[in-house]
Amino acid sequence: MRRRVMQLCVWLAAAGVLGMPARANAEVFVNPWAGVHFGNDEAQSGLRSFGAAIGNAGGALWGIETNLGYTPGFFDGGDNYELDFMVGFSVGPTLNVQAKRTRPYGIVNFGMIRTHIGSPVAGGEFARSDLGMAIGGGVMHELTDHMAVRADLRYLRSFNSESAANNLNVDVGNLHFWRAAFGVVLH
């Protein structure tokens, strides 16, 4: 009986040690950002984009990210917007610069790009959601243990090549543009 109790205690201790959580190396971050878009002749350029990213770089070479961007008045004139929701990965080393961590990175995201063009005329409203991608890079620099700054440049493009009629006569087939963004990172 004593032997069984001792074996049970050893098994419970082993299970307890093996079941203990490992040291967390994950660094989940939230990055509210504001940006400018350019590189599309039909779009109204300027500081009009904003959004947020949630991700995990974890101090490793690879990271994951979900990004939501919104640009009201994307096309020149009227009630219109561009909305993008992207999920993907980043790759880049974490460097120690003056006792602070800096991470240059490249990023590839896939997701949805939605365009909306409103109209005061009944039935003239246009909305479209297309599969799209974003590719780019940037840098994140740690200011404190829980706050950093981030700047990046991305090229966004929809995969749909067909245009559709709309009240602004804007070609939304193969929608593409560049976005430069800057934001604060909280983790």
Model description:
This protein is mainly beta and 187 residues long. The protein has one domain: Porin, CATH 2.40.160.20. The protein has 1 helix and 9 strands. The protein has one helix at 2-19; strands at 28-38, 46-56, 62-72, 80-91, 95-97, 100-117, 126-142, 147-158, 176-186. The longest helix is centred in the first third of the chain and has 18 residues, at 2-19. Mean pLDDT is 80; it is low at 12-25.
DSSP strand count: 9
Task: Briefly note the CATH topology name.
Answer: Porin
Write the CATH architecture name.
Answer: Beta Barrel
**Number of H- or I-type helical stretches:** 1
Distance between the termini: 52 Å
Q: Which spans of ≥5 residues are poorly predicted at pLDDT below 50?
A: 12-25
Structural class, please? mainly beta
What is the name of the CATH class? Answer: Mainly Beta
Sheet with the most strands: spatial strand order: 1-2-3-4-6-7-8-9
User: What is the string of helix and strand elements?
Assistant: HEEEEEEEEE
Any idea how many domains? 1
* Beta-strand percentage range: over 45%
Largest sheet: 8 strands, antiparallel, barrel
Determine the fraction of residues in helical runs and give it as a percent range: under 10%
pLDDT averaged residue by residue: 80
Shape summary: elongated
Q: What is the CA-atom radius of gyration, in angstroms?
A: 23 Å
